[in-house]
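Title: Comparing notes on inverse folding

I've been comparing how different people in this forum approach sequence design from structure. To keep things fair, I'm posting one structure and asking everyone to reply with a full sequence. Here's the target:
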């Protein structure tokens, strides 16, 4: 390893060690009305100019505007924007970002496919991802769930939900799954990949899954990672971590990852299952009624007390035992 590179990594690690753990509190918990447009929301992007949280469902090619009230404690469901002009009729909308006045979305998880749309919802092109991201273990529905863009607009980021077939196994009770976080420089199409390991399944049933559900970019090098797990008859486990990509080892040239592959250092921001539930209720089994199948993460505005809002949105799978929900967290010290 070059000395300069070692010093950069050492400096970044020292910086992370000195950071205080961010403080998190529940700003609001809002259950959306049960309707066709609020079911199965899997990705979000926030527009500060209009206080709108745009959401993409995995069942229909459209974008659903959720317009926040003045203090971000409630949302009004707007008229969905149909996504038109697509070449491929298959659809599995997962991740969403705002870019250049329009949208970029993960529109198929398994292929995987990332497409661009203008402000009217018309398709304007696609972004090609490295071919190995299609090498997903059966049944193949653990691919690209996440999408975010840096505030500068320079970089796009995504990650596979569970390990690719050549990189390892899904999470177990004692070991997390290893995935690849992709950092794409949009102007040059230059890619960087870094290895990230999720938490194990932990408490709950004997079976289930744990994976990366979404990402949110704090700046060009720092991401928030939403880890979401589910275990039958137990419910969900949802945590948000902070990672500095400068602490990672590049793996874009690695044909396979293993337990020996260095992974990104991560800092726990919040375990949602430990938050006070307040008046939250849930129709299904959950270790804490504030929990849900949270799949979408988006950074919101900074408040007067300098805390940053973070929107965490659920995919209710159009199920009567789940809830279409937006959890709004106020985070200090990001």
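Reply #1:
Here's my take.
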């Amino acid at each position: 390893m070059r000395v300069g590179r070692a010093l950069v990594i050492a400096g970044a690690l020292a910086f992370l060690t000195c950071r205080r753990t961010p403080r998190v509190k529940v700003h609001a918990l809002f259950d959306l009305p049960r309707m066709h447009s609020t079911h199965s929301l899997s990705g979000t992007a926030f527009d500060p100019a209009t206080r709108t949280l745009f959401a993409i469902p995995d069942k229909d090619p459209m974008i659903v505007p959720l317009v926040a009230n003045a203090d971000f404690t409630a949302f009004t469901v707007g008229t969905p924007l149909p996504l038109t002009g697509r070449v491929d009729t298959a659809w599995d909308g997962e991740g969403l970002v705002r870019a250049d006045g329009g949208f970029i979305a993960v529109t198929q998880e398994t292929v995987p496919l990332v497409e661009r749309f203008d402000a009217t919802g018309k398709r304007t092109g696609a972004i090609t991802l490295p071919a190995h991201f299609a090498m997903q273990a059966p049944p193949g529905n653990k691919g690209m769930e996440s999408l975010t863009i840096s505030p500068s607009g320079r970089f796009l980021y995504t990650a596979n939900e569970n390990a690719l077939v050549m990189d390892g196994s899904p999470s177990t009770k004692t070991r997390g799954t290893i995935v690849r976080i992709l950092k794409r420089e949009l102007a040059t199409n230059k890619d960087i990949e870094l290895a990230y390991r999720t938490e194990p399944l932990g408490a709950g049933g004997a079976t289930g899954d744990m994976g990366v559900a979404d990402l949110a970019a704090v700046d060009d090098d720092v991401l928030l990672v939403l880890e979401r797990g589910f275990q039958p008859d137990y419910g969900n486990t949802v945590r948000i971590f902070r990672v500095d990509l400068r602490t990672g080892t590049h793996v874009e040239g690695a044909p396979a990852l293993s337990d020996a592959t260095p992974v990104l250092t991560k800092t726990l921001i919040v375990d949602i299952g430990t938050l006070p539930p307040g008046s939250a209720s849930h129709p299904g089994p959950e270790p804490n009624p504030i929990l849900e199948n949270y799949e979408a993460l988006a950074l919101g505005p900074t408040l007067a007390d300098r805390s940053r809002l973070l929107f965490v949105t659920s995919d209710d799978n159009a199920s009567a035992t789940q809830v279409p929900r937006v959890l709004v967290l106020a985070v200090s010290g990001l």
